[in-house]
Amino acid sequence: MSTIIQAAIFTAGALVGGGVTAVVINKKSASRPAVPPPTVDGTIVSPAVSTVAPPVIGLGTNGRTQISEVSSVASLSSSAVLKYGHPGPIADPIIRKAYVAAYDRRLRHPAWTAEHLTLASLGKSVLITSPDESGDRSKSAFKEDESIPALFRARLADYFRSGYDRGHMVPAADAKFSQEAMDETFYLSNMAPQVGDGFNRHYWAYLEDWCRRLTATFSDVYVFTVPLYLPHQEPDGKWRITHEVIGSPPNVSVPTHFAKVVLTSKPSSPSTPNILELAAGAFVLPNAPIPDETPLQKFVMPVEAVERAAGLALFSDAIKSSSKHICQSTKCEVIVRRFDDTRKRPDMRRAISAPQ
């Protein structure tokens, strides 16, 4: 990663450090007791400021990773100043079959998305019988998310002739276990504008494929996708954030960068299945064409840098201190597969495999 990008992402932290702090919502939380706070050696790992929600992923009392339940920031609703309503900002929580997310009403795309990938969830486990139904991308269609208030909703017309792809934050290929799950990845609340040729259809797709392939090595793979707005230094020496807005009237913001943040776990040894080996890493890619031969490690950034730039708390300090870097636990290398060319040219399908 160039020093310019490193400087930009740390500068962005100072500019948007007051952004949304969000937690993943457990889809089964309604039927479960409250999850205890993460602990390390019997000590509760708590945020430095009591009004900040806990991290998304922490360590449970049994030493295993756990996803936090909903935990709201201290409410201001009791203030007399807000007796007639709270203006926000609000990040709409989204709970789907294959992922959870928070939707940014101002930018009209996800603030973040989160997935838990396993061999079973991808339909590749030899121990679990695959369901009779499976997702077929050709049966899915892009659609507006009517659960988002109309005033803040991304619309199909916004992307029409915009020059940008409707870029999945959670890829459809991660939700092949049912048609409903795959269909849910096509909501515009799971999209952000991405450069098509050289990025969404190519290098970004290679990175998504790399995330899925991690399940062959690790028992659990958590993947966060985070749109970013990073400043660049202009000739006058000042740092500025500039980005396009698509739609007529302008409606959906175009991120300057995207981050993939992964956390993996596996038993440290066959004899100690309850002691996990953790690995984590973050990759920040510009929303621009990237040559196929570019090494993935060029885009490595500290997890803390992404958190600071996005205003998010993804992992607890305990998780960070207990984790190896992902590139020390597995090969950080994408496989170049021209997925879009394969669709266009049936004669290439034998030589180039489609995404799984």
From TrEMBL:
Residues 95-321 form the DNA/RNA non-specific endonuclease/pyrophosphatase/phosphodiesterase domain. GO terms for biological process: apoptotic DNA fragmentation. One of its GO terms (molecular function) is RNA endonuclease activity. Residues 96-321 form the ENPP1-3/EXOG-like endonuclease/phosphodiesterase domain. One of its GO terms (cellular component) is mitochondrial inner membrane. InterPro entries: DNA/RNA_endonuclease_AS (IPR018524), DNA/RNA_non-sp_Endonuclease_sf (IPR044929), Endo_G_ENPP1-like_dom (IPR001604), ENPP1-3/EXOG-like_nuc-like (IPR020821), His-Me_finger_sf (IPR044925), Non-specific_endonuclease (IPR040255). The active site is at 168 (proton acceptor). SUPFAM superfamilies: His-Me finger endonucleases. Its EC number is 3.1.30.-. Its cofactor is Mg(2+). Keywords: Endonuclease, Hydrolase, Magnesium, Metal-binding, Nuclease. Mg(2+) binds at residue 200. Transmembrane segments: none annotated. Belongs to the DNA/RNA non-specific endonuclease family. PANTHER family: ENDONUCLEASE G, MITOCHONDRIAL, ENDONUCLEASE RELATED. This is Endonuclease.
